[in-house]
Fold this sequence. Notes:
Elements: H1 4-27, E1 33-41, E2 44-54, E3 60-65, E4 72-80, E5 84-89, E6 100-107, E7 110-116, E8 122-129, E9 145-146, E10 156-158, E11 166-168, E12 171-174, E13 181-183, E14 190-197, E15 203-208, E16 212-217, E17 250-257, E18 260-265, E19 268-275, E20 295-296, E21 303-312
Antiparallel strand pairs: 1-2, 1-8, 2-3, 3-4, 4-5, 5-6, 6-7, 7-8, 9-21, 10-13, 11-12, 12-21, 13-20, 14-17, 14-21, 15-16, 15-20, 17-18, 18-19
InterPro entries: AL/BT2_dom (IPR010496)
Signal peptide: 1-25
Keywords: Signal
Amino acid sequence: MIDPRKTIYTLVCTLFLSFASSLYAQHISPLEGRWDLEMDFMGKTSPSWLEIKHSGNATLLGRFVFAFGSARPIAEVETYGENKFTFSIPNQWEPKGSDMIFHGELDGGKLKGTMIYTDGSIINWTGVKAPDLAYTENPKWGKTIEVFNGKDLTGWHVDGEKNQWVVKDGILTSPESGSNLITDEKFQDFKVHVEFRYPEGSNSGVYLRGRYEVQIVDSEGLEPADIYLGGVYGFLEPNQNASKPAGEWQTYDITLIGRRVTVTLNGKTVISDATIPGITGGALDSKEGEPGPFMIQGDHGPIEYRAFEVTPLKN
């Protein structure tokens, strides 16, 4: 015999879920999502990134990554007109001045707009939806490539005028601040093994596909954070501080498939199969759907590398 109370309960639950789903759908804005931006900044195209999301009611908020610095929270994205929006961001590493003020609109599935910089200058920018990056279950790996041969800079190039990188006694060294070092070859999905050493107080980083910085910085004894050793800068925090003291050799073993990354520092898995939302500050470009090179940060402090081995995903 059918219990009428259960029937009424099921009907009420169904109607409530249907109403809640309809209400949520009404609040979804076409602006929501992650966007890869290109900004006309200081005479060149600077990659940036924007996320706009729903906060539980009609309010939109988000995060923004500029040409440098970490992901910055957006307290509120105000909308007006038809798919137009504005928000402001306090300066981080920019010159002191006013907040940066954004105006944008969605046009034909793409974003476009302007940013008023801290000095009052106006910067034009465009944006496209960040792509979905396929994840391969049970990956099969190809042959390991030693992208640093232990002898010279074959297979690498610098991104600036000053090349301070030298190879001595099998060690790749940046003795002082200068240019970043970039592989000639580009990769999509891979495992990478890196051995590095830095002096006290120094700072470097390894950019995966030239877009996602895994931080290298003297941070022994500090609370885990995305801006310290083991973190994906500004986005993913390590579950523990596995740093060794400055002056000791340390290792990274990193797997990146699609957007999912696993970071092992000195034999301890500090980030496990986590999603990288978007590019980090200092990225070479914002073309997330394309393969990219490795980039070693050399514009901060002294750093040494004695191994850099890449195992690409087998096609």
